[in-house]
Amino acid sequence: MDAPWLVIGLGNPGPRYAGNRHNVGAMVVAELARQASTPLRAHKKAQAWAAEVRLGTGPGGFPGPRAVIAQPSTYMNVSGGPVAGLAKYYSVPLEQIVVVHDELDIDFGSVRLKRGGGEGGHNGLRSISQSLGSRDYLRVRLGIGRPPGRQDPADYVLSDFPARDKVDVELLVSDGADAVLDLVHQGLEAAQQRYHSR
Known about the structure:
peptidyl-tRNA hydrolase activity, Peptidyl-tRNA hydrolase, Pept_tRNA_hydro, EC 3.1.1.29, Rossmann fold, Pept_tRNA_hydro_sf, seven-stranded mixed beta sheet
């Protein structure tokens, strides 16, 4: 039996944080769950909300590859434990772990993909790298842009998207979900070509 993919959307738990810029990765996983008509449920072995799904439709209209989609039920800065726990439980190899997260250094609305690299001050990524013992997992990076003026980046990421950006946020979440599907179905280079040329 081939190992499933593991797609983790980062965020902080609970309604207080649900609309935060920092939670856009979790929003993408919620969208993938909606598309699969499968609710996320508390996992029995890892601190996460998770669902086993088929990601999209493969060649010939057959169901896409198996995947576990999940949101850690811990706070962002200790995301590594849930990610490592799910990877171990489902025997997911490092090259099939996809972390979906917000990115300050990318323009709002843009999506970028890569494997490995630094954490750029992102505490969720730092925790995951430590728990996995590697940085070489896949990332779907959702651009939220830099804070205006002298606003502290920590305050910025923990504030909600403004109401005027509602449509653009929905587009970003939709693009993020599509990017995950493209990554899994077509590979990193093909997905990069599609999203990085925009």
